[in-house]
Amino acid sequence: MFVVDLTFDCYQDTTLELAEQAINRLVNALRFNGQIIGDEFPTVLKDGFFITRVMCPTEDAMHPLNHSPFVKHSIEQLHTAGLLAPKVKVIGQDIHSNGADMCHDPSCYILYTTYVHTCSPLYCGDDFLPVPLFRIPAIANGDYKTLIKWQEDWQACDQIQINGATRCEFSALEELTSIKSDLYRRGRDITKRISFLTKKPVYYYLYRVGGVDKESELKRRCPSCDGEWKLPEPWFGLFDFRCEPCGIVSNISWDFQ
């Protein structure tokens, strides 16, 4: 990912409140379009202009060709707050973050995330790198808000079950591991939508922990169709199971790895 500064010049008198609202509106639009990553965007006022620092999945993420209708509308709304469209300055590549998928025609995708990931939750099925969302057709209402909200909920459940400090842990774990959960239902709806738009298979990662022992884990069948889904070798060293008809991938319980 790349560290990028967005500089907003004032072309007329404005107020801090109006400027803040207009910048936040644009930042949210960019976030829901996958052009910026994360949920913390520090903004400073310096010498009469505003600077917002963001993280972008690619160096060209802020190119106008990637803008959604909501982003374009938010840029237009800056003028009502006395601000010009932002100047984009790429500071450099973040050495601590993931790279981005550069495949022009992935064979498939995987919907996968964890509580420590800040990148796109859509991964390329060829090199297992996060796919910038603006490189696939918009999922709904011109952007990817439904997918990003699903990712936030998945990561929240993951954080709760990892911490294991409250009784909420069990409900959170159920959301991550059960095909009857709301989180699974929403995620599968999203994978089906992306598959329809891209004409490519999209797999949903079903988290697995617990179980009796490794032997019984290796004999697990697809929880959706009860079919055989054990792979000869782990896919990307992570997914031990894959069901093509159901579009689900999973792992041997983390308790036995």
From TrEMBL:
The record, for Pfam families, names: DUF2310
Which domain of life, per UniProt?
Bacteria
Q: What is this protein called?
A: Zn-ribbon-containing protein
Organism encoding this protein: Pseudoalteromonas gelatinilytica
